[in-house]
Amino acid sequence: LNRLAERFGLESERYLLFLSRIVPEKGCHYLIEAFRQIETDMKLLIAGDTTHTRDYERQLREMARGDGRIIFAGPLFDEDKAEAMSNAFLYVHPSEIEGLPIALLEAMSHGRNVLVSDIEENLEAIENGAQRMGESFRNKSVSDLKDRLQEQIRHPERRRFTESEMAEFVTRKYNWDAIAEETIRVYRQILGNTAL
């Protein structure tokens, strides 16, 4: 954690990470409100692009005003993005709506434990058979998000998955070769055994 430590004063495993487009449906406002209610010396790193959402960014900065623990990094790319994800204590994804949350999968591929809103798309992304490879909170509930954050911070020993387990899960479940083979199999079922 060299470049981000210099730029933002971060320490490895001593910050929470929100990394996404800075738009209302990604739910960053819930996270800021919940985080401000927690007693911790950890920081909250908010990273992402605010293209076409300057009013929302201003709203978030106003919500965070006076709390030196909350850092707005702007967009992070390449090494900076990998460094932010690899060293976060927890990746938080409080989105209200999603498709397939790629940033969530990236965080898990870096071995991060995750806390997500309980919308179907997020839960499906962390689903691993009968268990979930992460924790969830009630969508749009600041109080539930606060409680889950506080629990994670106060009891890090209860983290359910190791870095290698998280990374292995994502690599296995979202392996593009396996996905392509499964897609071809479905097409063959639909079309018969004609060559694809």
Overview of the structural elements:
Helix 2 packs parallel to helix 3. Strand 4 (90-93), helix 5 and strand 5 (114-117) form a beta-alpha-beta unit. The protein contains nine helices and eight strands. The model has no long low-confidence stretch (mean pLDDT 91). With 196 residues, the chain is of the alpha/beta class. The protein is globular. The strands form two sheets. It has a six-stranded parallel β-sheet with strand order 3-2-1-4-5-8, sandwiched between helices. The protein starts with a helix and ends in a 5-residue tail after the last helix.
Q: In percent, how helical is the residue content?
A: 40-55%
Largest sheet: 6 strands, parallel
Percent strand equals: 15-25%
Query: Which secondary-structure class do the elements indicate?
Result: alpha/beta
